[in-house]
């Protein structure tokens, strides 16, 4: 496993990540908003090829009268020929551990498709029932409860002195922008 700031990702890995993401999400743009301090975590095979990739995004959010240093997982993707072998779970668990050890992270919040909840729970994340993330911008919001979405919100609270109770069943103004509209 290796981690790079997005701007420092070697070209050979960047090309592989872009190909994996294009396969998983045809037509999507590769890369993340530099304002979210993106880091790319990779799980490599023995030959140095990317098996799994994900991005860690960061920003401050205001919620329940407080400011939190939030991080989120985005663009988790496994090479199609390597799926079903636990590689994705290993990288997601490693990402959770890295964020938990980061003193600059109070909480981790992200959304996923409902069928993926058990996958993220197995890596140690907690589902927040009834919680809605509002992404995009205040002028162009995108919420996880938008019509046609089947999203759930997951979290971890490594550095926050208030845990899940402040975030469960809440609408959380994430607003990561128009590049990473919803992480």
Automatic annotation (TrEMBL):
Highest taxon listed in the record's lineage: Bacteria
Cited SUPFAM superfamilies: Acyl-CoA N-acyltransferases (Nat) (SSF55729)
Annotated keywords: Transferase
Segments forming domain N-acetyltransferase: 2-144
Pfam families, per the entry: Acetyltransf_9
Coiled coil (residue ranges): none
Any one GO molecular function term: acyltransferase activity, transferring groups other than amino-acyl groups
Protein name, entry field: GNAT family N-acetyltransferase
Organism of provenance: Streptomyces vinaceus
